[in-house]
Structures are given as C-alpha cells and as structure tokens.
Amino acid sequence: MKLICHFPAHKSVPDKYVLPPEKRPCDHELLDDLSVALPVIDLQRAVAEGRRQVVGEIMEAGKEFGFIQVVNHGVGEDVIQGFREAAMEFFRMPEEAKLKYYSTDHNKPFRVFSGSLTSHNDANDIRYWRDCLKLRCYPVEKLMHQCPSQPEMFREHLAKYAVAVQELARSFLRLIAEGLGFDNHDFFEGDLSGGETLMNVNYYPRCPDPSLTMGIRPHSDRHLLTILSQGEVSGLQAKHRGRWICVQPIRNAFVINFGLQMEIVTNGLLSSVEHRAVTNSAKARMSVASLITPKMDCRVGPAPAMLDEETNPPKFKDFVCSEFTEAYEAAAGNREAVLDFFKIHHTQNPACVNQQFNMH
Ligand code: OGA
Ligand code: NI
Asked: Is the CB of 236 under 6 A from ligand 1?
C-alpha cells in the first residue's frame, strides 16, 4: 500500500509515520495571538484609483509576513472549483489507476508519490502524511498532453486553471515591480517568470492523531512565486517571528508567497518564509500549489534597481537557474544552506550579511 489515502481506516498512526518528538507540530510554538493575522488583500481595487494603496498593502504584508492572501483576484469560482473537483476525483480513483503513475523520478512530466516533500525521503526514512500529484502545467499547449487523461475532463479543467493562475501571477508580479519602485513594471515578465510552471496537488488524508504527524515538513519554496489554493480546510502555517501562524482558509482565495529566487532577486527584501502543513483528524484536505519559475537558462541575481554600492550591496551572486536547482537538491531544500551557497561574504560589514538569517 503506497498511498496514504488507500490505507484502511486507521485507529492509530502507523509506526512509520510517527515523527520523532522534535519534528512534531508542538502547540507551544503556535502563535495564538489572534490579532496577528495574515492580511487579506482585495485585488479588484488594483484596476482603479486604489492601485497605489493595493501596492502599498502588498509590500507591507510581503515584507512583514512573506505571505499574502488575495481575494477578488480575477480567477473565476467555476475555474477554481472545477479544477479542485477534478483533482479530488483523481484522488478518489482506485489505487491501481494512480499507482501507474507512481514514481520518484523528478524528470517525469507528471507523477504520483507519497510521504515526503521531495522524491527522496529524509535520511532516516521520515514519512509525512501527504499524497501528491506533481505535474508541469504551463504553457498548456506544450505540456497538457503529458498530464493525466483520467478522470474525464481532468485536462480541460487543469488547462483552464493553469492559464488563469498564470495570468494572476503576471498581474501580481507587475504589482510587486511597482512596489519595489522599478521603472520597468514588466521586470518579471519574460525569462524570469517564463519557465515551466510546476504544480503540487497535495492531498492530506484524515489522520488519526495529528499531534504525531506532519503533512509537509517546514520548508521554503525554491521558485519565484507560489500561488496556492488552500481550499476550505485549514492546515497551512507560516513562520512569523519564530512562531507559527495559521493561514485561515477562505473559499476561492489564493495564498501567495515568495520563493527563494524572489528573495535573491530582491536582495533579501521579500523573504521566502518557511511554512509547513499540519494534518487533522476531521477532514481530508487538498491544496493546489502553482510554482512560477524562471526559465532554466535564465540568469538570476539581485536586480540592479535594488542595489546601492554603499547602503545595499548585493548579498547574493548571480547564477543560472539550473545551477540553483542543483544547489537546492544538494542542500536537500534547507533554506539557509541554499542561500549560503549563493551568498556574498562582505568582510567589511558582517552584520549586513547575517541580517537575513535572523529573520526566522
Ligand atoms: C507546497 C506547500 C502547503 C499546503 O506545496 O510547497 O507548501 O498548504 N503546500 O499544502
Ligand atoms: Ni511550500
């Protein structure tokens, strides 16, 4: 039995999935101050005279939390729910139908796996309470024929969703470019955001004891931007000043957060904040993460407009996107280790270099 969603109904968590105590979701690390909540930003105002204000709110939330929740974002409810239902259907298919696609090979255009964040489980075979369908979904005309053809209409719904989310990413990146004060509002357009968009369709079955397991371990996303449909069941938590805060689920909203490459492009200003997903015993949860990515041969580095020789020297060296992927694999996704790989050590002013690592 490879997929958790096909385990027989459990009374207790199977031993393999019980995390060592230090990896469990400790309640005392949760920030229970309800006044600290992720801002919910209404993007509709960005098309009218409210644009400046929206840009300001995004930058403020982006700098403070690294996570932003958006509503009235222009992606239709029918598109979101249409794909979410098709994806739920996918996970409801018989296990044999899904195991055909089971693979730990990263090069597959789409695959199903279970238990870990990446294909390789942690060294001592630590397992997480998640099944995942991972695919490449944009540009659709190039990739859609490689996506699952079952259940019926899956591809149609996926294509509509992928196109709409890409459009949201474009307009959001334009708002970010404005917020950063770039003259070129299309700064992120083209190679920097034009790589193949990946998608994680995460499925977290009900778990008999959520205090012993985790759906996704704490991690930072590696790409430029993540656009997540969390659905209506909570589970996502983001690190904030050393504690975890819950990201409240809102139907049809998107949660947007920055990847490590955005942190580098903005020279550390928009940070790729660590997050995790906890499990629950009441309801299965499904989230859909779309990962906006630079082209593999694109040069990435701190944007010149972010830099100032005296007050803001580059904290990272330039690299080609494919080199980044290698470093990320080598560091097994560890945030500090990946950033350290590209960090420039300014000997005159060590305080400036250390600053970004103290934020979490
Ligand atoms: C991810 C992720 C969070 C969630 O897929 O990278 O962080 O809520 N998902 O499922
Ligand atoms: Ni993530």
From this structure: yes
- Is residue 151 in a domain? yes
% of the chain surpassing 90 pLDDT? 78
DSSP of 160-179: HHHHHHHHHHHHHHHHHHHH
CATH of the domain at 261: 2.60.120.330
Residue identified by tokens 């409801």 is 92
pTM for the model stands at 0.92
Ligand 1 atom closest to Cα of residue 215: 10
Smallest CA separation from ligand 1 atom 10, residue: 287
Q: Max CA-CA distance within the chain?
A: 62
Which residues are within 8 A (CB) of 85 and not within 5 positions of it... i.e. 6 or more apart? 157
Decide if 71 is inside a domain.
Answer: yes
Gap between the Cα atoms of 231 and 229, Å rounded:
6
pLDDT, tens digit, 9 for 90 and up, residues 241-259: 999 999 999 999 999 999 9
Give how many domains the chain has, as a whole number: 1
Distance 214 CA to ligand 2 centre (A): 13
Ligand 1 centre to CA of 144 (Å) is 22
Range of the domain at 149: 19-299
Q: Is 255 in the pocket of ligand 1 (CB under 6 A)?
A: no
Residue whose C-alpha is closest to residue 151's, from 100, 86, 80: 86
User: Which residues are found with C-beta within 5 Å of the ion, ligand 2?
Assistant: 221
239 C-alpha to ligand 2 centroid (Å): 12
